[in-house]
């Protein structure tokens, strides 16, 4: 089914630019790497806004909440409103809302403060996350983790403070609480948590819980299109007039394709041109280019 | 293909007993639960020895080495020689020996001291395990884990001290060192690490590394029959004259069946009679009974 992608060029860029009303950007590997802005991003986003394009930032990284991401943009000198940000932490909260998660039930979180904040904003009681970072387990004979029977969902995202206590707590809730949901913010294998190297992503923690529970999660982040209905409501743009811009084939580009958007792969993140063109790869974006700042150069051409 | 199992009875027990020269026992859930001996085990093993049966203890728990398991048996009042014990920690070392693991290469271990000890006894250089238990990661921008390029294998077993440093280190070796092997001691989802409850097993840590590397491991413990060739050499008994006794369908019983042994499920561990008889279960042992001490009662009948 896949036809091979075209490199972004002066002629096809004009077609893309004219037909698209909203650009959806992944953040890590597209806007920044770790805490460093990718060159030319600020001017590129300004140019797009000045031409009347809508901008949306869709990130699978659940470590932060939308407001924390808005602060991060601010600290990097880019002004983005919280309403333009769709993080997988927010998606997890919206999923539970959409499922009418009972108000007497609680959520156990393996992941960051961002998930807890988004759940609080959605009036859902949650615990775990950072507060369990330093819990240790000494497997003596009388060692026993007592879990809360009112936990009705376990949300798992990236967690650099993963430990055996959290794994046991989440496993007990999913295995022993009838009907307990298992929600993954995303399943990215690795990500640029720091500028210098890639680190295990949420896919690592999610797989760990799959391994101990022998259950599969509901994924709310990319490539699941769960977030798309919220995007459509808010921006009132049809999917065919959106372009998803990302650095990952199996999340960003697949998400864009699943939703019926145009897709642009940037090579500033985890995907190399040779990986894109490898015969084993069957996910082909419409276009690819080095970084989003190429759009700035092409718009001036 | 599966026919349903028979409960052990005076008549079929006699057939089984007469046709079997060696009994292979799983340990956790069969001999003990955590650090507590299951009732009647000591007398049952004595009876089998007195009737000339060979005894072998085949455990997927890689936390301990064979000598550490022999000490555990001793501390529970049972005399077992190290040569009668086949642990998945030993299997990992034997697998690398069988593959002529180059002497200039090293092994990184996610797991317990038992794996390191078995690797040392096989003259293989290994590191990681307990020495990395307290390593922490602070994801600042300059944070970087440098890994040893001479690591040629990562061995993953149960590790209650699992942390993000270990996950990153193992992931880097597997992703970046050409030809680096990924070996799982076993993939048990959960196990009775303490008498009071089940805890995530090696299957949890192994899945985590699968999640971050997007690779599948070689499994050396049950249900893989890798250990069987060592068993056959040492005991000189044909598989059809062996009976595998265990509490898990997907490891112990499958292992016995894969090897062509007779199989006996005991209900003293993780498998209930209703799970055995559930239509979704397609692994049927030849026989089942409550605990191995039923063999003692039946031998007197």
From TrEMBL, chains A, B:
Pfam families linked to this entry: Hydrolase_6, Hydrolase_like
GO cellular component terms given for this protein: chloroplast
EC numbers for this chain: 3.1.3.18
Cofactor: binding comment: Divalent metal ions. Mg(2+) is the most effective.
Signal peptide as annotated in the record: none
Keywords in alphabetical order: Acetylation, Chloroplast, Hydrolase, Magnesium, Metal-binding, Phosphoprotein, Photorespiration, Plastid, Transit peptide
Superkingdom field: Eukaryota
Chain's role: Photorespiratory enzyme that dephosphorylates the 2-phosphoglycolate produced by the RuBisCO oxygenation reaction.
Family: Belongs to the HAD-like hydrolase superfamily. CbbY/CbbZ/Gph/YieH family.
Name this polypeptide is given: Phosphoglycolate phosphatase
Provenance organism: Vigna unguiculata (Cowpea)
